[in-house]
Design a protein that fits this description.
Elements: H1 8-19, H2 35-49, E1 51-56, H3 61-66, E2 69-71, H4 73-82, E3 87-91, H5 94-103, E4 108-110, H6 126-135, E5 140-144, H7 149-153, E6 157-159, H8 164-169, E7 177-180, H9 183-193, E8 198-200, H10 206-209, H11 213-222, E9 227-230, H12 237-246, E10 254-256, H13 259-268, E11 273-277, H14 282-289, E12 294-297, H15 312-321, H16 330-346
Parallel strand pairs: 1-2, 1-3, 3-4, 5-6, 5-7, 7-8, 9-10, 9-11, 11-12
Bound molecules: iron/sulfur cluster.
Iron/sulfur cluster binds next to α10.
């Protein structure tokens, strides 16, 4: 099933991006603080509210630098569940803040802009999943964590990009599986498990899908001695593996990694140069983790517009006014939590996006 229709949320993002996005400085029209006092006010307000600020690896550098914790979606949600803070300010996209709320229902969870959606999560909704399940009665549903709470609630077990293959291997080999929503991650899982009874939803993240095989070939040929980190959501993953197998790029220099996996690999890398195929916000953490290696994007245009909706001004407004709070109804949250906890019980949850 093709699933690329734009949702109202996606359309709204384009309008906002075209009119108001200000990622580098303060916005005089919004009445926000000069940059020199912005960070002080953010920290004071966070302390007064007893709030912890979490930032995803793809956030703007200013947001990453002010946060208490920076990481991947699942890792941050687990931090949210363990913290003593009363409030969680989740600087990421909406499904990530929902996951934090699902794992810590007693805390107040906020996102600086509730319109920060995700083109991958939006490729399947609860009605579409119900219909797909009805076409495959008895199939086990495995959902990547990049899904809404309602979709997780209809899921048997969640997975991350680190453990998707382990989750599938934990399921009876004779059992039919519905894997969603990312087709590139699904193809990767099919390849490494060798199973042919996995049906894969035809969803994709527009940012990662745009990191194309031709981007990869051009960048690799211009940097033949570089290591290569590729997120399995990328449109170039299959080509990279094919190039590695055919010897066009050195197989031992090519790593298919989640965002958390990239960070761990970067810390121990002794390479002069590493090419990175994922959203470009990730480069900020990689460069901080290893200042002696040069990290270059495979596609420098691969910026997520949804992640960039979380601006310094909106973070400050969130702390001042308590907007936007995230709610998940109890029945949905309980069912979704069961799917996430089953994944954690299988082990190696590693990281989400
Ligand atoms: S990079 Fe893609 S998967 Fe990640 S939040 Fe943005 S649209 Fe969603």
């Amino acid at each position: 099933m093709a699933c690329k229709a734009k949702t109202p949320r996606s359309l709204k993002v384009e309008v906002i991006m075209a009119t108001t996005l200000n990622v580098n400085g303060t916005n005089a029209a919004s009445g926000t603080s000069p940059r020199s006092t912005w960070s002080e006010e953010v920290r004071v307000l966070a302390r007064e509210r007893n709030a912890v600020i979490l930032a995803h690896n793809y956030q703007l550098p200013e947001i990453q630098d002010i946060a208490d914790h920076v990481g991947d979606s699942l890792g941050l949600s687990r931090i949210a569940a363990e913290t003593d803070a009363d409030e969680v300010i989740f600087c990421g996209v909406h499904f990530m803040a929902e996951t934090a709320k699902i794992l810590s229902p007693e805390k107040r969870v906020f996102i600086p802009d509730a319109n920060a959606g995700c083109s991958l999560a939006d490729t399947i909704n609860a009605d579409q999943l119900r219909e797909w399940k009805a076409q495959h009665p008895g199939a086990i549903v495995v959902s990547y964590v990049n899904t809404t709470a309602e979709v997780k609630a209809l899921t048997d077990v969640c997975c991350t990009s680190s453990n998707a293959a382990d989750v599938v291997r934990s399921i009876d080999p004779e059992q039919e599986i519905l894997f969603l929503p990312d087709q590139f991650l699904g193809a990767h899982v099919r390849r490494v498990t060798g199973r042919n009874n996995i049906h894969v939803w035809a969803g994709e993240c527009h940012v990662h899908a745009d990191i194309s095989p031709s981007d990869l070939v051009d960048t690799v040929r211009a940097n033949t001695d570089a290591e290569l980190y590729i997120h399995p959501e990328c449109g170039c993953t299959t080509s990279a593996l094919w190039m590695a197998e055919s010897g066009e790029i050195p197989g031992n220099n090519t790593h298919i990694l989640s965002t958390g996996g990239m960070l761990e690999e970067a810390k121990k890398s002794t390479s002069e140069r590493v090419l990175v195929a994922t959203e470009i916000g990730m480069l900020h953490q990689l460069r901080k983790a290893n200042p002696t290696t040069e990290f270059l994007p495979v596609n420098p245009q691969a910026a997520c517009p949804f992640m960039q909706m979380i601006t310094p001004e909106k973070l400050l407004k969130c702390l001042r006014e308590g907007t936007d709070e995230v709610f998940v109804d109890k029945r949905t949250a309980d069912a979704a939590r069961t799917a996430v906890e089953r994944m954690i019980a299988i082990g190696n949850p590693g990281s989400g996006e």
